[in-house]
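Before the break, one more example. Copy the sequence into your notebook; we will annotate it together after we see the structure.
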Amino acid sequence: MIWNPFKKKDKPQEETQEQSSSIADKLEKELDALPAVFKAKLKDPAVKERFMNIARRMEADGVNFKSIRQMKKWMKDHEQELRAEGAPEQQHVETVVHEGPRIGRNDPCPCGSGKKYKKCCGAGK
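Here is what the structure looks like once it is written out:
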C-alpha cells in the first residue's frame, strides 16, 4: 500500500469519546502536559473553577481548543468581561500615623538606657 498524505484519516476511538466527555475530564487528562506554574495554580479550587467556566464558555461559542489562534481571538474579544469577573474587590487601606513625638538620631533612647538612639535601639536602622 502506498502512503497518501491527502487521504482522510479515520478518527481513533479515543477522539470521539473525548468529544463526549466533559471539560473537567479533558482538563484532568491534559494536566500533566501543562507547565508547572499552571499545575500549581490549578490546585486552588477557585482558580480551577474559573478556568472551567472560561473553557465552558469557549466551548459554547464554538472555539476549537486545538487552535491557539481561535482561543487567543476569543480571549481578546472577551477580555473586558473576564477582567471584570476575576477582579477581587478593592480593600480599603488605612495609613498608619505615628502619634508620639519624633525621635531623632541624637536624642536619648526612649527605652531608658541613657544612650543615644543611634547607638541603642536605632543601631540597626
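The helical segments are 13-20, 23-30, 36-42, 45-60, 68-77, 79-86. Residues 45-60 form the longest helix (16 residues). Try to locate both features in your own notes.
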